[in-house]
Each structure stands twice: as C-alpha cells, then as structure tokens.
Amino acid sequence: MDGLTIVSHPLVQHKLTILRDRDTSTQLFRAVVKETAQLLCYEVTRDLPTALIRVETPIAAADVPKIAGKKLVIAPILRAGLDMAEGMLDLIPSARVAHIGLYREPVTLQAVEYYFKTPDDVADRLVIIVDPMVATGHTAIAAIDRLKEAGVTDMRFVCLLASRPGAEAVRAEHPDVPIWAAGLDEQLNDHGYIIPGLGDAGDRTYGTR
C-alpha cells in the first residue's frame, strides 16, 4: 500500500507476537509496547535532517552530525498511545508532547474528541502521532483532522498494528500522512476490532478488562 511502511525487522515482529498473545501479562504487555515503540521510532525518524557541528572529543576537534531544525512533537492519542509516547521519549527526551483525547463511540464507531492540547508552535514542527491500533481508521483520521486545523503540515502516524480497511481509509482521507506499523491484518469484526489483532490495547496496557 502506498504510504504504508510495515517494519519487518525480526525484533519488531517478535515483540508484536508477544503483544498478540492473550496470555501476556499486563506488566509485560506495557513493557513490550514501549520497547516496540522505540524500535518503530528508529524507522520513522530515519530521514530527519542533520547539520554538522564542531565538538571537542577527548582526542581532537571534529565536525559531526546533529539533528537540525526545531524539536519534533510526539502526539499520543489518549489513552492507549501514552505508553508508545513514553517509549519514544526515552529516545528523544527533548521532544515536545501533544495530547489528543479521542474515544470510539461504541455504536457508530466514530471518534469523539474530549481533549486536545499542543505546544503553541506545533504548526512549525514535525508531529509524530502514536496510537497502538488503526482499526476502522476513524480515530486516526479525526486526530489528523484536528492537527491540520491547528496548522500542522508535517505529520507521520505510527502504530503497532493496522487493519487493511483502516489503513486504506486513512490514506484515502490524508494521502500526505505516511503510516508506519509493525503489522497489517486484513479484516475487522462487526465491533470494529482487528482480526486476529491483539485485543483492546488500552485495556491490556492498564489492566482495565
């Protein structure tokens, strides 16, 4: 699918299998979500621009690369995206954080916003949206819509697992926003859950079901 990158690295695929397993404990699930997010972070930031700066090593002066431009923004979709954001922040502690509160209405499966907070200059920064799942795609689309309303023009979406219908919906609505995922499943059930999927990522992260 154009604009969708499946990260096929063996470590990523191994960790996704742990997340799929219904017998994985809440503690282990939470830890592996963070670890997988870190691995995905390497991929989604692979092409960040750099500039040479002069530093003094213990041996001599050297011109070496440093990430250029304004610090990026990590934007978790609440609540399930928080652990992914924490994993990425371990790698990029200077990143700013935006919070997008959305929940999926259980009957219509449409996204409903309840919170939105970003840095004042979010429109000038690269924003990496994180959410464990792209199922129907409605929540991802709503998050991107809201950030575009705030003036953001440079976005990337990172998830653990996407459904083909959901990814296609996001790409159709926002072809300018590429997606990175650890896996792609083909189907959704009647309740909008990915098959085979990994269940409700928020509930499994926080032990609420």
Description of the molecule:
With 209 residues, the protein is of the alpha/beta class. The protein has one domain: Rossmann fold, CATH 3.40.50. The chain has helices at residues 10-20, 26-44, 82-91, 138-149, 164-173, 201-206, and strands spanning 4-6, 50-56, 61-67, 73-78, 96-97, 99-104, 111-117, 127-130, 133-134, 155-163, 179-185, 187-188, 194-195. A hairpin with a 6-residue loop joins strand 6 (99-104) and strand 7. Helix 1 (10-20) runs antiparallel to helix 2 and helix 2 crosses helix 3 (82-91). The model has no long low-confidence stretch (mean pLDDT 93).
Topology as H/E string? EHHEEEHEEEEEHEHEEEH
CATH architecture: 3-Layer(aba) Sandwich
Radius of gyration: 18 Å
Share of residues in strands: 25-35%
Helix proportion range: 25-40%
CATH class call? Alpha Beta
What keyword list fits this structure?
Rossmann fold; nine-stranded mixed β-sheet; two-stranded antiparallel sheet; 6 helices; 31% strand; globular
How would you concisely characterize the structure shown here?
This protein is an alpha/beta fold and 209 residues long. It is 33% helix and 31% strand.
